[in-house]
Amino acid sequence: MHTHAMNPSLQRLERLLQAIGDRSRFRLLLELVAGERHVSDLAGQVGLSQSCTTRHVQALVRARVVHARRAGKRVMIALDLDVPEVAWLARQLRAAAAPDATRVEPPPAATAARARAAESAMPPAERAHAAGPGSGTPPPAPADTPQAAPASADDLEDFLL
User: What secondary structure letter does DSSP report for 79?
Assistant: First the structure.
């Protein structure tokens, strides 16, 4: 194990991966790729309660994956595309969702060298499999759930965020 400190880019990437490692948070991320959303809308799309969605959004805000802004009484959530790793991931998710999703963009330059080093350390058979087309599994599709939210959802959201 390395004893030296990670560079800031790797720290951001680690924080991003930890934040979206939870399936519910990943599903929220998939919804946000389409654009800014209200927490109630997100909750309905992914089939979670308002309070559960708010807790997941708070974790994503802390990890700088998303940011929140007030629009009157509503809190709008959007991907934090100023973070290069989040912007890269958003492009990957959009490309994967496209009907002709055959090309995958390489990772940000800050992590590309480490990815190459890790790949060169793999046995040749694994390296060939990892580089082959379709070696990754597609992200899970968001659940088809009704978008109904309780009338007091805005009040609860404002309290929790």
Answer: E
Q: Which residues pair with 71 in a beta bridge?
A: 74
pLDDT tens per residue, range 138-155: 444 444 444 444 445 454
Instruction: Supply the pTM of this predicted model.
Output: 0.59
CATH of the domain at 118: 1.10.10.10
Q: Quick check: 31 and 147 in contact, CB under 8 A?
A: no
Q: Where are the beta strands (DSSP E) in 21-142?
A: 37-38, 66-71, 74-79
Is residue 56 a part of any domain in this protein? Answer: yes
**Residue among 87, 22, 17, 18 nearest 56 (CA):** 22
Structure tokens at 52: 């559960």
For residue 161, which of 22, 60, 33 has the smallest C-alpha distance?
60
The span from the CA of 62 to the CA of 56, in Å, is: 10
